[in-house]
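Please review this pair:
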Amino acid sequence: RRPTYIERDDDGTERRIWRASSLGACERSLVAHALELPTAPTPAAIQRAYDAGNSAEDEIISKVTDKGWKLLGPYDKPALEWVESGGTGGLQVTVEIVVGKVAGVEQVIRCHPDGIVRKWKSRAAGKQGEWEWHDDPLHEERVVEAKFLRRGSPHTSVAKARASRFYAWQTSVEMHATGLGLIMAVGWKVKDPESGEERVEGVDIQTFDEPMYKLGQVKARVFRLAKMVEAAMDAGLADVECDWAMYPCAFHEPHDGQKAWI
């Protein structure tokens, strides 16, 4: 789906959805998506990278659970909305931040974290030769975001990856929407010399207690974008600048000399 789109309820009420994973995108591209302008097709190489990331997600998250974290599901969190997608056993949680209304349309940021986990500790009980192992919850929960990246600037570490523009906004939304700290797990990709396919070489995991952006900053960005969209409904993109040379970009026109998909 587009990074932003209109969702209509049964009674006709409209809400504009902003996908958290795209909140850090170029402002011009986000406005263009809101106007539903034609986009370039995704190049095969980019699509392969997307597919490889989806395929590697389970392996990356398994390294988190190996460290004593257990993935939670609908039974553990029945109040949350769960959908059939993602790499967490076929179910993924949906969380939202309601920002407010612009021109009468409610603005909502929606995200699908890769998982919510709870810390557990194993202990032995009984007597020698008749040990029984028990898992005790430690009541610490975190939201999980898994990435499959090639090590190199700006992704030289987990902390550097989280601080990059897309992931800084995405993980901030996830933390605010869930009220939890973050576990970010990065699987470092290498190309298999025989098959030529990308595989996970190793996984680095780091926890973070504070988001990169405060809730007020997150909402302010969406308010700004929504007002730009409202203005562009009449004026078009003429007054909307490309605020950074994003690659890949789904639109045919290059922005300030950046590479485009075509």
Observations:
- The beta strands are 4-8, 14-19, 69-71, 81-83, 92-102, 105-111, 115-125, 132-149, 181-191, 198-208.
- The mean pLDDT is 87.
